[in-house]
Amino acid sequence: MIELQDVEKIYRTDRIETVALANVNLEIEAGEFVSIMGPSGCGKSTLLNLMGLLDVPSEGYVRLAGESVESYSDRRLSRLRNQRIGFVFQTFHLIADLSVVANVEIPLLYRRMRGRERRQRALAALEQVGLSSRVHHFPSQLSGGQQQRVAIARAIVGEPDVLLADEPTGNLDSSMGDEVMAMLHDLNNRAGTTIVMVTHDERLAGRTGRTLRLFDGRQVN
Amino acid sequence: MLKHYLATAIQVLRRRKFFTFISLFGVSLTLVVLMVATAVFDQALGPQPPEVHSDRTLGVYSLGMRGPSISSNSDASYWFLDRYVRTLPDVEAVTIFSQAARSATYRDGEKFELYLKRADGAFWHVYAFDFLEGGPFLAEEDANAERVAVINETTRRRLYDGESAVGRVLEIDGQRFKIKGVVRDISYLRQDPFSDVWTPNSTARSDVHLRPAVLGNHTGVILAHRRSDFPAIKRAFEASLEEVELPERYEELTGEANTRFERFSRVLSSDRDQVKASPWRLRIAIALAMLLFMILPSLNLVNINISRILERASEIGVRKAFGASSWTLVGQFVVENVLLTLIGGGIAFVLSSGVLSLLNGVQLVPYAVFQLNFRVFFYGLLIAVIFGLVSGVYPAWKMSRLHPVVALRRRSL
Ligand SMILES: Nc1ncnc2c1ncn2[C@@H]1O[C@H](COP(=O)(O)OP(=O)(O)O)[C@@H](O)[C@H]1O
Ligand SMILES: [Mg+2]
Q1: Which atom of ligand 1 sits closest to the CA of residue A198?
Q2: A2-212 is classed in which CATH architecture?
Q3: Among A52, A65, A55, residue whose Cα is nearest residue A3
Q4: Residue B244 Cα, ligand 2 centroid: separation in angstroms?
Q5: Contact present, B367 and B188 (Cβ < 8 Å)
Q6: Mean pLDDT, all residues of chain A
Q7: pTM to 2 decimal places
Q8: N or C: at which end does chain B have fewer Cβ atoms within 10 angstroms?
Q9: Which residues of A62-71 are buried (b: 16+ CB within 10 A; e: fewer)?
Q10: ω into residue B136 within 30 of 0, thus cis?
Q11: How high is the ipTM of this complex?
Q12: Percent of chain B with pLDDT over 70
């Protein structure tokens, strides 16, 4: 499903050159649940962003569902992200000006879809994460755990093949974290969604199918 | 999609009240000032009654005399106008009149002041007054120095409680006049025809105006058969200046027959000695002033927009992550901005109507009736919308280029 070949990512700012990733080779099969671990600053987010086509590697190739994306235009990349990928971020990144249900509708907005169907699907996704009673609230009126559930609803509403989660439980207490994890497992088991999750928590990583470890931008085994 | 954009826009405007207020304030204030200025300008210069022929009139408003050690500028004298302007060939009519002057009158022993203008028979031909009763005085009544007068509607109300006035005797400026007609009020901004009371030139209290002097306090207005005659008339007038015999110590006489707009541009120009008009300079100045006036708030809007959109970096990152292309995002921010501008336009429309009817109500300018100029409003709004577009496109484009990763790193929500 996701393939990285000889990937290197270097950030260049005025004088400093940061090698965020070097010589990364990996393949993630459809339906896998993979966790990524490593100390802070070792390149986990960078790796996830490359997989999600939010960033391009300095060297090497990224392939998503068999498509080589290096020559894709902004438009084509957008479409691919829209149809194949869902994101969950550590800091939720809900849009404060929009209601819960409007936030969840966002991925569907960039597809050809009638407003009514969009709304129905968003409501269904919210029901799946157990937030049917909060659809017209604004993000600031919800607890952290509830906000992350909204973010998950938004990530799954478009039924993506791949869900990329960057420390989804990082800002939650452990019971809320477990709740979110249960949701991800459920999604992986029932819908067969490929999930890649960055985490600091060995306990959570132990419950995934496979764990990739990074140190200083390199894979360690 | 558009529906979602609009819904989002309204949501954003409602939730960011301060920003909304500042933007709306800028847009509507600009439009209101533009609208009120145009209304005043229209009131003063547009072809409105009684100056329905203003596109065919030229006025001799001022003359300049120079000598080696002396120079004077002033209105022309009755004598000069009668001799050199009334005699111009191939024109439809020439009228000569004085400036409206405040003059005393009485009612029930109480004194108050009215504007009094001395004019001639042709005056009523050059200007299309709307008579409520009676009619104008005639050229031969001016020739015979008959004590007759025309008054306006407000004067009729003040003196006779609005009852019929024709045939009554009005005492003003120490003279008694028989009223021949009553006309609708004329705006003060229409300086040439404006007055409360009009009487024949020949009834002036002294015959100073008949003495052979070049400078005085009268105005001559020429009604041409057609506008294309203007150059010939101007040349004939300037040629006639050569024949005028000047008083001792003066060597040169300058003056022009000007259109209303040329005259207006001269009044505005700071150079008091300048008798020659330069309407192009004024036209360009007005256009520049209006443009500048629109540009400054627009730049401000661009600025506000940039900071507003920067504030929403994380939103941009999220939308990109979930499949918005850069152009889709530009579309969204532009819709938001245009909506904002249109709301500002709506507010401006209501406010300008309010300001104008207030101006009309308190009669800041005697008898002026300011009206909204829909054409100007339309253009003003169009400009505002264009600026709304531009001020939305630029920052939105800049922001949409923002890499989603970078956008998401900004933690402002
Ligand atoms: N946009 C960027 N510009 C410059 N350096 C960056 C940028 N993003 C990440 N880095 C650097 O790359 C390295 C890896 O960052 P990141 O992938 O965020 O690590 P992690 O998620 O594992 O904490 C860090 O040293 C970080 O400072
Ligand atoms: Mg990280």
Answers
A1: 21
A2: 3-Layer(aba) Sandwich (3.40)
A3: A65
A4: 94
A5: yes
A6: 92
A7: 0.69
A8: N
A9: bebbeeebee
A10: no
A11: 0.93
A12: 93
